Every structure is written in C-alpha cells, then in structure tokens.
Amino acid sequence: MALNILTFTAAAVPFPSKIFNHSIQPKIPLQLHFSIPISTRHLSVPQSSTQPQKYVYPDPIPEFAVAETQKFKTELLKKLSKEKETFGDELDDVVSVCAEIFNEFLHKEYGGPGTLLVEPFTDMMVALKERKLPGAALSARASLLWAQNYVDQDWETWTSKQLRQ
C-alpha cells in the first residue's frame, strides 16, 4: 500500500484599496502549507458503486388489468350517473370509452406504484371529444382521481395475495 502526500500552497493576493475602503494592503504574501496523507486503498472505488442502479418495474399483470378495469368501470358509472343532466343517454358510451383506454393502459404500461401516468386520462378526454360525447373533461378528471386513489393500493393488495399463494 503506497502512501501519497498532497501539498497545497496558497498565497495572499494584495487587494485593491477600493474594495476595503482603506489604504492598508499586505506587503508580504502570506503562504500556507499543509499536507494531507492519502492512502491509495481509499482511492479505489468498486466498479458497482460508480454506476447508478436502476429500479426495474414489474411487467403489467393481465389478470390484474381485467379485474381493475371492471372495478374502474363500475365505480366510474356510479360516480358519473350523478350527473344525468350532463351525460343523458350517452353515459354508457362515455364509461365504455374511458374503460377501454384504461384497460389498454393497464395491460401495456402499468407495472405497479410509480407507473401510473397521466396520458391515458388525457387520451380519454381527447377520445370523448373526438366522438362528440358529453362531459369529456368531467369524465377524464373523475377517472384520474379514481385511479390515483385506488390503482396503486389495489396493485399492492393483488401482488401480496399472489405472493401468499
């Protein structure tokens, strides 16, 4: 094991008197010397600690996606049915569009807490507007709020049950 010594030298630089608002300036440069012993074994860094570790989210679980979509559809229908004047006879169509987009997201993208994205909910609003269905913003917002409140929690419950079996 080799022992290295690092030496640092600092010299005082005379400052202009305008900065300190007086005429006293150091005439002799001030030099400081100090040494720090360094052991080479402290300098070696294991290769694994230099690369940040990435967390890999689990793949989507199709059975979870089916069950969660059904729960979502039931709850969204219940929530939006309170707004009969907004949706009229098209409530089932609105819920079907939202559930279809949500189902696709759960099957392709959702891999547990930390993977709930806002895109499927903006996609819901766009799809509802394109199909000229009522309450696009209300439906997308209700869908997003439901998902924020339940999806991650339901995932945790689902996966913990699967581990026990």
TrEMBL record:
Biological process according to GO: regulation of gene expression
PANTHER family registered for this protein in UniProt: PROTEIN PLASTID REDOX INSENSITIVE 2, CHLOROPLASTIC-RELATED, PROTEIN PLASTID REDOX INSENSITIVE 2-LIKE ISOFORM X1
Protein name in UniProt: Protein PLASTID REDOX INSENSITIVE 2, chloroplastic-like isoform X1
Organism of this sequence: Nicotiana tabacum (Common tobacco)
Gene (UniProt): LOC107813503
